[in-house]
């Protein structure tokens, strides 16, 4: 778990540093940084989505995941929680807590580096990939928190829980999280990151959180399709 703890600490430290910097940056520059983050988010999403090997699996995952998330009202739950946090930490400041939380959580947890690194840590105790990811997340959390505020700091909890679960359940999950499953999970997660980019650039207003179950649906569809041949 040392790799997960280091990664979580990196997000916390980077977020706190970014929040400290945020206070001294004029609103005009913060807005410019927000646009830059949105463009980079689109780039990361498009790049990651190309890792998918089966468009039908991606479509089914997103559609089914979106239906599940909508029924559970995940976006509404996150928004209500973020509103409560907003009132306590910076009332009236206009910080986008929910958006920062979802954006950072996806960026930090989607991708083969997260999954493979966590499985390696759980199966063989090899934390090298998670250590490398920690450096990247430290830098990313600084930049994200400058634009998106305290929600980025809260995403550290997701990093801890998600990667920690992968490490602890590595033996059980290894047969399910095949190379094909990881590729489709990365593809689906990257499609959600593209949606986040649209939101950050104010091109659309997509309830991305409602589609989070799609990431878990993808490996299940891969497993079922493999059993059915």
Explain the overall architecture.
It is a single chain. By secondary structure, the protein is an all-alpha fold. The protein has one domain. It has eleven helices and no strands.
Q: How are the SSEs placed, and which strands pair?
A:
Blueprint: H1 2-22, H2 27-49, H3 55-72, H4 74-89, H5 97-109, H6 112-124, H7 128-148, H8 151-168, H9 170-173, H10 179-200, H11 213-228
Summarize the structure.
The chain contains 11 helices and no strands. With 229 residues, it is an all-alpha fold.
The whole-angstrom Rg is: 17 Å
In percent, how much strand structure appears in the residues?
A: under 5%
Count helical runs.
11
Mean model confidence by pLDDT: 88
- Sheet with the most strands, sense and barrel status: none
So what's the overall shape? globular
Structural class: mainly alpha
Termini Cα gap: 36 Å
SSE topology string: HHHHHHHHHHH
Into how many domains do the coordinates divide?
1
Number of strands: 0
Helical content class: over 70%
Low-confidence stretches: none
